[in-house]
Automatic annotation (TrEMBL), chains A, B:
Residues in the signal sequence: none
InterPro entries linked to this entry: Pyridox_Oxase-rel (IPR024747), Split_barrel_FMN-bd (IPR012349)
Species name: Dongia mobilis
Protein name listed in UniProt: Nitroimidazol reductase NimA-like FMN-containing flavoprotein (Pyridoxamine 5'-phosphate oxidase superfamily)
Length: 232, 232
């Protein structure tokens, strides 16, 4: 089993039985997600920026304008923490203390660096589109030189990562099961809605067949997992 | 209009026309959310921890075990960044470059501190339950002394905050509207599922009437907003 080696930085301390360090747990949580929260430090001040991200092997990527503060400061290579969270449900117990959350989360640590090679930058941006929208690159206009110049891709090889998850019903104190209150789980999921065509769309253009996984009502985490699975 | 005064720390630099600093924009984004990503620094290393949070006025609160690393280090009062993100949709444009995301996000800055007064700590934990689950405190067992001792509540008065949002259809380069590809928005929303009773639930106990907003199919952000609106 491929696994990350936790140090004090990534070791799950609180409820450590919920912690996992193996790729087989961590990668699916990452691949089912679209938004990560990237933490970095400027002059002792922490910043947490939400950003779309993608993964290739043990490396996480994200992008933005070459002008953005986060990316400007990260070009030199700075310590970063990339956190991904899926909220799966509210856990209602028979005491306030035992109320909980069902979730899947990953904290990944590494050094965020600029992808300096223009060819690799262009390849990663293609991978980002392919990872989200199978077949779409064949239908849209390709990137122009000045667009690539105005875009920065950041990479972070994962040095350490931990996953933390909870699932299942509440766990109450023995004596509390006799209480007359309802207990259980209210599931939560991020769901795809009905696609809204651009008001300026030329009439007669259908929703792309390559995006067939984006069915209204589908779970977005499942769609993302399916799309990632279609990569060559 | 009540607003936060941005400094270099919170000023939205990238696509600054998407930035807002007024409470009337920021508070509803916070109150529609359940999970925040809290950034803090230990020995130069950034950490981003997902956590449930709640708001009272200009103060954000979160809690955890008194043993957790994040809370242990924050007791002294440390700089923190609390970020909240709603992912509202994928924006598919006619070029890779103009693909975008519809979202509502807030970055809030301040100093995270321990809520040291036990009475205030207990009041805040009650507020947390009331904010999520109207009427539930009257049905469950109250907190016991040793439970409160084992729980830490952290507060962060917002010193600065900015909101950043995008909504609406793609914006393409003029020449690209003639392309034959589909363009538009795939909406995304976090949605409530069918409540799952605890397998150990005493038969005959119904789902609480106080939680009537948690209807299967309801948007969780709307439920949270409604519940926050019921606070005294």
């Amino acid at each position: 089993m491929n696994a990350f080696t936790p140090t004090d930085r990534s070791k799950v301390k609180r409820l450590h039985e919920r912690g996992r360090y193996d790729e087989a747990t961590i990668f699916p949580i990452l691949d089912a997600a679209f938004i990560a929260h990237v933490g970095y430090v400027i002059d002792g001040q922490p910043y947490v920026t939400p950003t779309a991200f993608w993964r290739e092997g043990r490396v996480l990527y994200w992008h933005g304008s070459a002008a953005s503060r986060m990316l400007r400061f990260q070009e030199a290579g700075v310590p970063a923490c990339v956190t991904v969270t899926h909220l799966d449900g509210l856990v209602l117990a028979r005491s306030g203390f035992h109320h909980s959350i069902n979730y899947r989360s990953v904290m990944a640590f590494g050094t965020a660096r600029l992808v300096a090679d223009p060819a690799e930058e262009a390849r990663q941006l293609d991978l980002f589109v392919d990872r989200l929208y199978p077949g779409r690159r064949g239908e849209i206009r390709g990137n122009e030189k000045q667009e690539l110049k105005g875009t920065t891709v950041i990479m972070m090889e994962i040095e350490e990562a931990s996953a933390k998850t909870r699932s299942g019903p509440p766990k109450d104190d023995d004596a509390d099961y006799a209480l007359g209150c309802w207990a259980g789980v209210i599931p939560l999921a991020q769901v795809v809605g009905e696609a809204q065509a651009d008001p300026k769309l030329t009439p007669g253009i259908a929703f792309p067949s390559g995006l067939a996984d984006y069915v209204p009502g589908a779970r977005f985490d499942a769609v993302l997992t399916a799309c990632a699975g279609k990569l060559g």
